[in-house]
Amino acid sequence: MIREYRTIREISGPLMVVSGVRDVTYAELGEIRLSDDTVRRCQVLEVNGDKAVVQLFESSAGIRLADAAVRFLGHPLQLGVSGDMLGRVFSGMGRPADGGPEILAEAYRDINGLPMNPAGRDYPNEFIQTGISAIDGLNTLVRGQKLPIFSGSGLPHAALAAQIARQAKVLGDTAGKATEGNFAVVFAAIGITFEEADFFVQEFRRTGALERTVLFTNLAGEAVVERIAAPRMALTAAEYLAFEKDMHVLVIMTDITNYAEALREVSAAKKEVPGRRGYPGYLYTDLAGLYERAGRQRGKRGSITLIPILTMPEDDKTHPIPDLTGYITEGQIILSRQLYRAGVNPPVDVLPSLSRLKDKGIGPGRTREDHAGTMNQLFAAYAAGKENRELMSILGAAALSPTDLLYARFADEFEKRYVSQGSEEDRSIEETLDLGWELLSILPESELKRIKPEHIGKYLPKAKAAAAEETA
Q: Which DSSP string do the residues of 440-452 spell out, in sequence order?
């Protein structure tokens, strides 16, 4: 039986304390009825004896303690899920935001979900092509992986997120054919401006990517609880599509920093003891509860691959949000402000970036036989080229050997042609690998020590011919 309580004792910002409650549980949904019969929704954050702390989904303005009544609904916040969600735009609370009708739900799911059981996980080992050379060629994304993007304020992570969402695909076989029919994208935009939300919607519509996308948009001016709910809504939709509809789902979340700020705001309102930089001590557990919902399950054909995007305050990689994210996930893609200022787009800093599972998703049967060797050689050559370029700026070109000058030239060409490709170019993995060989042809063949001789004999002549043709 649903009880109604007129025992609201305190309101503090988005939080409210209700006393005398019975059989109320954590995360349970509630409704607050005001004196004018309007209803506002809330969620239980904490239960201590007969007192419950609830968080309002809307403003607390206009609530009078003597007149308001609270009723708890006996279930947590839920999302109605269906295959018809594809191609639709929703708010951070799962309501249609595109002017379309409500979804006819096939099921209702608790948005809090559960992290995937480690014993039930299947190992990620299939290549996902993003069409971006700096990721596909050097920091490969694997189906079921969690690979965050570390950005900074003002860097083009929103455009990069939209590009990945448009271009990503799972390759079906060694011929490089994409399996489009069972691939979907769930995109969660958290704490963004109206202009950013409009950009994502228009970009997906313009390119036709919206047909395979479920888009959740939470605006910065909306209630803080919606910012906390938005990523959980997205993961709940992804779990349904992946494990009930057997789809390969790519979940992209931007910006996790806004989500963590919302957690800090709620924690401060609850007067909890703060942790590092004022964030709650359970930030690691909370982020892990989100990230670990992604992956592959034994016995299930579908999968969830997660790309959380976060802006590092003051470009600080030791800040709690990127620091804790790095512990939970399998690598990171780092955007460079220096490359961005130099006109490189996307400004991926490939040397500190890392995909810990890249070796599991490349090679014969997945990408190409020469992928591992060219990847290692490109890393080594670019590192040497950057070092020689710095020496040249200090000592002058005359102090470097001819080979050192070639490495410096390689670093310039690598950033200009390989890393920088613009937001509209979608490169296949074959085009990325061939471009890598073209750049390696700048160096003497004796310097290619990380590639098997048979691969050099097979691919280098073609690369030299292509480079000569381009120069001519």
A: HTTS-GGG-TTS-
